[in-house]
Amino acid sequence: MKKVLLLIIIAVTTVSSCKKDLEDRYYNPDQLRGGTSDIVPGLFTQLLTTNKIFVQDYGEWFYLLSGGTSITGYEQVCNRYISYRYDWFSTYNDLTTGNGFDDYPITGQSYFESSYTRLKNWETIKEEMDKRSGQDKTDAELYFKLATLIKVYQAAKLVDLFNSIPYSDAFQGSSGGTEHYFPAYDDPKAIYQSVIADLGELVNTLEASYNQLSEVGKSTFRAQDVAFKGDIIKWVAFANATRLKLLVRISGVEEAYAKPLITEALGKPLPTTDLTWQLWYTIDPTGGGFWLRGLYETTYAAFVPGIIMKRMNYGASTYDEGEDDPRLPVLALPTKYNDYRAISYNIDEQTPIYDGGDRYYPYADDIRSSLEQNAKSMYNHATFQQNAQMPIYMFSLAELDLLKAEIALKGLGATGKTAGEHIRDAVSHSVDFWYWLNQLSVYERGTADAVLYPAKPSAGVISGWADKVGARFDAAAGADGKMEILMQQKYIHLNLLHPYELWAELRRTRHPKLEPFTWRGNVWKPMPERVRYPTSEQSANPDNFRAVADQNNLTSHIFWVPRCLTHGGALLERL
Amino acid sequence: MQLKFYKITIVLLTITCLQVSAKSLSQQITLSQKRSPIIKVFDEIKKQTGYRFWYEDKLIARSKPVDISVENASLEQVLELVFRNQPFTYEIIGKVIALKEKTERAESINAPPAPEQDKRITGVVKDTLGNPIPGVSYSIKGTRMGGATDANGRFSITVPDNNAILVFSSVGFQSREISAGSGTVLDVILTASATGLSDVVVTALGIKRNRASLGYAISTIRGEELTKAGATMNPFLALYGKASGVGVNVGAAGPQGGIRINIRGAASMNPDQNTRPLFVVDGVILADRRTSIGGNVGAGFDYGAGINDINAADIESIEILKGAKATVLYGSDAANGVVLITTKSGRNTRGFGMTGSYQYTVEQPANYLKLQNTYGLGANIYDTAYATINGQRTRVVPNYRYNFGPEFDGADVMMYDSSFVKNMAHPDNYRDLFQTGFSSTANVAIAGSNEKGALRASYTNYYYKDIISDNSWQKRNTFSFNGSIKASELATFEVVSNIYNVSSQNRRGMNSQSIAWGFPRDYSFDKVWTLYTDELGYKRDLSNMGVPQAVNELGTYLWELEKNRYRDEKVHFITSAKVTLNFTKYLFLVGQAGLDYDNTTYKSEKSVDRILPAIAGGSFSAAKENTTVQTYQALLNFDKNLAGEDLHLYAFAGGIYRLRSSEYLGSSTVGGLTYPDWYSFANEAGTLSADNLSQVRNYNRGSDVLYSAVASATLSWRNELYLELQGRQDWNSTLPPENNSYFYPGASITWNYTERFSIPKMNRGQVRFAWADVGNGTTRYFANNLYSFNRLPGTDAVSVQPPGNILPGALKPERKREFEIGINNTFFRNNRIVLDVSYYRNNIYDQIMNLAISPTSGSNALKINAGNVRNWGLEVAITGTPVVTKDLRWDITVNSARQGSKVIKLYPGITQNFLYNLINGSAAAVRADQGKPYGQIVMNDYQRDDAGNRVVNENGIYILNSQSYIDVANIMPRFYGGILSDLHYRSFDFRIGLDFKSGGTVFSYTNNRMFGLGQLENTLQYRDEEHGGLAYYIDANNRKIPWQHNQPAPADAVGGRVYHDGVILPGVKKDANDKYVQNDIIASASDYYLSYVNDLASSFPPDGLHKNNYVKVREVALAYTLPRALTERLRLQKATISLAGRNLFYIYKSIPNIDSESALGADVYVENTVYPGQRTYSLGVTVAF
After folding, report:
1. pTM > 0.95
2. Which of A299, A542, B112, B516 is most open to solvent, judged by the fewest CB atoms within 10 Å of its CB?
3. Which residues touch B1030 (CB under 8 Å, ≥6 apart)?
4. Which of A33, A113, A542 is nearest residue B855 as measured by Cβ atoms?
5. Whether the Cβ atoms of residue B457 and residue B498 lie closer than 8 Å to each other
6. What ipTM, to 2 d.p.?
7. Are B551 and B528 in contact (CB under 8 A)?
């Protein structure tokens, strides 16, 4: 009997230990099982900090710069020191086959797909929230609203790059149904209007949502909100500023719709400081996953083009305080000639200069060599390539000023100031911003401080420069002339920090006027209008994709480009 | 050095053998007992010897008192006396003496002596040509007594009487039963039966079965088949065309890389699902993986898998189990077939034997790339390049991307370094990137056997130098040990152990950039070979050198290859221990433990890029990867005749436990190195931070377990009918706990109808039918729905990420239901023709898959059970012996398989299933859409008019229709196989092996890109008058106007130039009224070719695909066996010299410019590397002592 009992015990133990073994090994030991903790705050933080939304992406930047034929190259924010030795520029004017304009940083780096899949957190937070009730639900609600803010922000960026995108049925795969597995493409204007409506709702309700948080909820939120540390007013301002930006963007095609909403937005909280934040770690610009690494590794393609340089540097090619833009030395590095020289898009002119011995040090790892060898000005290595404290940019006062300037210029709403005054504000705010950003850096402190960390000019000098630009703006001929100056300022201010925004603004306004590309006697002015959808959509969503396949090229306009610019000769006149 | 190694090895191994055989029961026992109870005697023996007794009380109850008086006697002697009059007997198992009932025979000891005495019979077993056959198993029928013939075919056995029946059997021969008769010498002749019915094959779980009893197809490849044309780096490289329905492909990574083995077109709708067969070595399940160049293992090379280490010289046979029924007993692991490898044992060696072999192999690059040598770099023929040097206009070597420039004219041109060279083509510049490599392999093996057991030990030293660089090599030491001992009638032990010590350096990396930019013939590579380093030996910034990007890309390739060291070093251990306990004549238990252990260290030493003005770049990284598979199984077997001799039952049941686990931990320096040439974490220049944490702590792990219960029963009626029923129940940890168990049954019937009817000229006729419904789990953690979690360092915040795919519900096991019918017939005397045909059809349903959905849903795929894919195929193997004379024998074998598939059903509401992008950034996709074959390639078609004519754009170039998707091709091969011819003439053996494949389309970047670059020879078309080019000039409006070749340009011609490379592509254009009319627009040849090279095109011309059909001369070998008179004088048993070539040439191939086998690895439908094919010539010597 004893033996039988023993056998039974052994058998039961074996079976149950096998069962446990099977269950234990079923789960990946390095991942979190649901239901073990409150995942909502973590889902929000992950969404906030993931690359490609607010934090720029290493891979994208590597490919943006390496060839010189992608967005930053064509929009003339930065480029290589081009000569005939780079024969691939011979197809610069090609906007049809893919041999010219290079949209790989977007299409090949999953920008489109990631914009949706990384927003799966939004859907997951919603599911978690819907399961809850009472205070638990209220505590989740704020995160859901902020996730919604991020969702609509990113959706608008997608429209700016692609035009029509799946939107109303998108982001909801987990709720099932063919329409959510394979979402249809929506009209881009409808998406914009939906986003603008959602942002309005958020502006009105975010603060109340915050106030309804439990005390524990508030303290968790302060920890999890690594951007604004729980300062909900900043979120409200960011939502409202984003709304204002989108309203201005759409105003060229839907002025009647935009105007009252612009007025409404101007009456709601807007940023009173630059909206930026620091990552929780020190960036490793040379080896980490942050966008600066892409810039660092392709420093040879980070020269300042004339389109920016010429609007900062007047008179002699050196920096002369009072005569030149105070931002020049924080944005750019001097050349070996101890002055500031831009690269040109006139390759026929530039090639002999290069062949004549103009050279450069192609890296950002030795400031002495750069200063000794660079025949053209690179972006300042302390401010950019090697800035381990580079903040995450969300919105800035200068960007707001420039929006207001356009609103005032075009009579889209009452800003309380003239356009020229806003331009002056923009310049002052931008100078403050860039000197602040430059001073965050610690790269080669004490080595070449004079060039890497120029002393900030006095307030008088700055305001004097702001007045100069303002006066130039006021004096400019007509709205078009004024827009040119406004956009030049936007280029100078946002430069490498927000190149996609600049590209959107360039396509919408056709300003600033770019330098034609001159190659072996050909003068080209190619203007890519969009990037192509990723092939994943053609493969995984073919039926819906068919509806937009005819626009899947580099030349179809985004809906917000005003009709007067997309038809007839206006397009060719822009230069 | 190598010779010394051998000697040491031989000595060591000999000592081991001696120790084992010296084991005896020579304890000295002194006993004196009168009428003692047997227990008391046992106690005394235990005290003196340490041997314990094991018995049942009921036996002891029947014992008789013992009288014994011995002094310094051996244990055997004492036991003999003690048990002499007892009603039971004993058996020694280890240090235990087990009491057991006397069997009938044991009782017969007391019976009167047999009329005839035991006698010894010796003899030689030969084949029909009179050659002795080693390794023939022989036994006395109805007993387990017997052995195997030695290297000279000799055997020796003691038989109880003249009526004893001796049974002789050997793989590849028909077995024979011969009466012992009255003589003492018996010569036996066995008839070959290459795929005969009566040979013994290894089946699932290592169970040996008579082929005649199998209801399903098994392909057997004998060890010598793998080495006839020279031993390859691993045996799978010699498997081409040797088994029907088994596809083999070595990719561009070369022999060091992964080998794709695909059985019956195994495919899955889950791209991550394993579709490779299960590999089992002597009962040990191997860890396996799919690999490719640019994969995610180690430093991104194609490292291959555990099977790469298997040593051809140690292989006895490979059996390939193809269908579901054949693999039922392996359960989930074997859904894609099983490759069973049996290593050599000493059983075939009577007494003691030793063999040694050495082989030297030349590894030669086989270049299939045909580049044109007429036109140099440039966009058109007027692009002669000049530079102003010191105020002088000087002609220079051009710096362009495309090769549509002027004709090479032999003029003096200046290079980047100011030296002058002739403007001419350098036709060998691609070939010059590669070298002739070599490999050498030396093997020594000793083996021995006697009635008690057998041993074999072997050592192989292998060295390989790759064709890409001296820096690229592999070194390997293989130790193989196989020992078995029959400790008693009750117990047999067997231990097999293989130790592989493998180091490799600088495997072939991805090098697609060179394909994108080409190998401009303007440059001789001895001129640019040294260019990638600067004066100090560090990386030169080539972008400033004024050389084309192509040279730049080659510089990067060479730097990687020559200056960096990527090394992987592994210790791989495949070992198994087996014990067989024969409880009774009918009942025995086989217990086995197996371990596949692989410990690999990856080290990357990347040189600093430059040391001036400051040291920059460089890195050191190290990673450890440990993979183990443990298998434990116990099977209780029952084997008995029922109802007389006619009905026989063989059944077994038992349990199996299989655990796979892996762990990887890697770290890399951050921020470059402080000093050059010192590779250590201590030399790290950067600072650790949260930003580079992933480089510093790169860890992953995982395990999965499979518990199984198996049962099998085979009921046979004489040799005529066999019915087999099998079942297996699996509990699989890759599936969710609620669905992790599943059962699968299998059944087969075999009817050897010639046992019933006599059919003229037919010796054997067999039909067989098999059915099975097997289940499978999925990849580890695939069925999980978990969150990624981490804490943001230095903050109170946490970060949570949801899973990327949607899991709508718990997954179930996937299933495969297959039936198979087959015949196996032999014809004419000596089985001159053997025909084996199988037809199978299966449905793989409830497939566990990622069904791709639009990422705009927020997720990439649904993880579901869905789909039903039908596969079918016909496999034919014919072996014939057209000629047999006294001196000559010619055997020919043809293996072939035809296969197809269809996706029957996907998921409710979904009919399209995207599997992979065919090529990065392309709209060309591989799909498994409902109603179509699996693996269709879908692409944009050309724009066409209603009549199907291609439409050209305003430049006269074809355009693609981005809204129309067409099925262009399929990635799966349709028809493949091989032909082997073996000619034996006196002492010569001559073999030719061909293999062929039809279907299985490949996207070849090489063809596409280099066509676009104007580098391929076939781009000469339309370039000039001679090649069909039309004359035109370009007017001020940039239009191309037709002209005459031999007339000067008209006044309005731009630059006064006439061009000769015009082409009017056949097709239609739209006229002013939007009507399609015949195309008459002249395009330049370069415009036409350029439409193929688009760097970022979202689709490619559908004619950029190539069917991958080929017929290849895979192996040719000539072997000469030295005459016996000579070898005997040299005191050798046998000596053979062989000369062989492998991968020699294609008789036909449909894909131009590349080797048909240059796919990237796991994805055999994409080609994107620069590596040429590889041809080998080997010289080998084998001697047996």
Report:
1. no
2. B112
3. B1022, B1042, B1060, B1062, B1063, B1064, B1082
4. A113
5. no
6. 0.94
7. yes
